[in-house]
């Protein structure tokens, strides 16, 4: 699969325009596939290889999710086997497929650096990676060589009723420390502990700097793109960080600080992103006074957090003047995490799958 590739629909194109106009609901999902690599290749280490049975179970789990929930647009993360994923989703009716990068291969069979992908039942009219604005990166105190830890997919999708929408798929840098303490057999026990602690704190902060910088540079790209094209925006993926944390909070900045000009504040709403959960919760509050509780999308030990998000532009916000759709449903598929069945869920994923339903406003 070449970089910056799009698989275009090969049949039924004559039916798409009529079907799209009639379609009043759009489902969008973000899906971390968790080491999606077909055997006999290995992920990260030489002995981490799925057996044929394990791989088939993983394929079946993904296909079952797609058949049950039937999202129209999906942002995938942790993709190693690009061609295998394209084959799988096309069997489920996804005619459009976009990637902008490829994983690293060591010794011909050990894979590292998985990529993201976007699949769609609606036409993808263009696809590109998001380039780093080097001048802006240097203004942020980064080097001229700074880049995303994983290349971001930007696919422009033609949606019914709305037209062109720029869909971004991300997998921001993880919280894993950027470096580890080097073992030294001559170092005292106390010295080893101190070195590990230094690596944990400093290496963790280095990862936070990378993750926050990726989000900032992406957001500035999205604003510039929005100003140029006016396209609606959807940002989805594994953020590896709660959105409310200061590291990523600017992705959903609601207004201009220290600015009382209402016209300018209203103009800014065109460029800001909204968390799909917040829009869904707001819509449901109008129907029922019962508060909704947001479920976690990832569990680690005794802790849990929301790491997987779908963010939307004003076209999907019922309070905005440019609104077309509303978030009518929000589904956090997590049974495989909180009540798994090994026979079914044994090779699924370590994240919940988040999907939303966008319904055309009448």
Short descriptors:
alpha+beta, Deoxyribonuclease I, Chain A, 30% helix, globular
Structure description:
The protein has helices spanning 13-22, 52-69, 82-91, 134-139, 189-229, 262-268, 276-285, 335-338, 342-345; strands spanning 5-7, 25-36, 42-43, 73-79, 96-99, 104-106, 110-112, 115-120, 124-129, 153-159, 163-171, 232-238, 274-275, 298-300, 303-305, 308-312, 325-333, 353-360. With 362 residues, it is of the alpha+beta class. It has a single domain (5-360), classed as Endonuclease/exonuclease/phosphatase (Deoxyribonuclease I, Chain A), CATH 3.60.10.10. A 7-stranded mixed beta sheet has the order 1-5-8-4-2-18-17. Strand 11 (163-171), helix 5 and strand 12 (232-238) form a beta-alpha-beta unit. The chain is globular and about 70 Å long. Residues 8-12 have low confidence and may be disordered.
Task: Set out the fold topology.
Blueprint: E1 5-7, H1 13-22, E2 25-36, E3 42-43, H2 52-69, E4 73-79, H3 82-91, E5 96-99, E6 104-106, E7 110-112, E8 115-120, E9 124-129, H4 134-139, E10 153-159, E11 163-171, H5 189-229, E12 232-238, H6 262-268, E13 274-275, H7 276-285, E14 298-300, E15 303-305, E16 308-312, E17 325-333, H8 335-338, H9 342-345, E18 353-360
CATH topology: Deoxyribonuclease I, Chain A
Structural class: alpha+beta
Mean pLDDT: 91
Q: Considering DSSP H and I runs of 4 or more, what fraction of the residues is helical?
A: 25-40%
Count of helical regions: 9
Number of domains: 1
Largest sheet: 7 strands, mixed
What are the low-pLDDT stretches, counting only 5+ consecutive residues below 50? Answer: 8-12
Give the distance, in angstroms, between the N- and C-terminal Cα atoms.
Answer: 41 Å
Radius of gyration: 21 Å
The string of secondary-structure elements, in order, is EHEEHEHEEEEEHEEHEHEHEEEEHHE
Classified by CATH, the class is Alpha Beta
Record field, number of beta strands = 18
Molecular shape: globular
Give the CATH H-level superfamily: Endonuclease/exonuclease/phosphatase
CATH arch. level architecture: 4-Layer Sandwich
Percent range for β-strand residues: 25-35%
Placed side by side, the strands forming the largest sheet appear as 1-5-8-4-2-18-17
């Amino acid at each position: 699969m070449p970089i910056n590739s799009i698989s275009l629909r090969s049949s039924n194109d004559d039916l798409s325009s009529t079907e799209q106009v009639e379609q009043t609901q759009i489902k969008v999902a973000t899906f971390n596939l968790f080491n999606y690599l077909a055997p006999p290749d290995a992920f990260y280490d030489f002995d981490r290889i799925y057996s044929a049975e394990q791989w088939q179970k993983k394929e079946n789990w993904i296909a079952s999710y797609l058949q049950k929930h039937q999202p129209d647009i999906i942002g995938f993360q942790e993709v190693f086997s690009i061609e295998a994923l394209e084959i799988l989703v096309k069997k489920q009716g996804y005619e459009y497929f976009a990637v902008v990068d490829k994983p690293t291969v060591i010794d011909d069979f050990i894979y590292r650096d998985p990529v993201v992908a976007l699949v769609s039942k609606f036409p993808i009219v263009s696809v590109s990676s998001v380039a780093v604005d080097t001048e802006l990166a240097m203004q942020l105190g980064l080097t001229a060589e700074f880049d995303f830890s994983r290349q971001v997919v930007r696919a422009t999708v033609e949606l019914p009723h709305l037209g062109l929408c720029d869909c971004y798929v991300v997998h921001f840098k993880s919280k894993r420390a950027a470096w580890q303490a080097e073992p030294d057999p001559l170092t005292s026990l106390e010295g080893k502990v101190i070195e590990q602690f230094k690596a944990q704190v400093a290496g963790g902060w280095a990862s936070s700097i990378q993750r926050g910088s990726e989000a900032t540079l992406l957001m500035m790209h999205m604003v510039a793109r929005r100003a140029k094209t006016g396209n609606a925006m959807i940002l989805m993926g594994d953020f590896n960080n709660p959105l409310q944390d200061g590291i990523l909070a600017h992705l959903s900045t609601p207004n201009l600080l220290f600015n009382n000009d209402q016209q300018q504040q209203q103009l800014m709403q065109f460029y800001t992103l909204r968390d799909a959960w917040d829009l869904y919760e707001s819509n449901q509050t109008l129907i029922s006074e019962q508060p909704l509780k947001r479920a976690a999308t990832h569990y680690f030990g005794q802790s849990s957090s929301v790491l997987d998000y779908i963010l939307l532009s004003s076209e999907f916000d019922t309070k905005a003047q440019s609104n077309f759709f509303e978030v009518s449903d929000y589904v956090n598929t997590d049974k495989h995490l909180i009540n798994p069945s090994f026979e079914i869920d044994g090779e699924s994923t370590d994240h919940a799958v988040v999907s939303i339903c966008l319904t055309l406003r009448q």
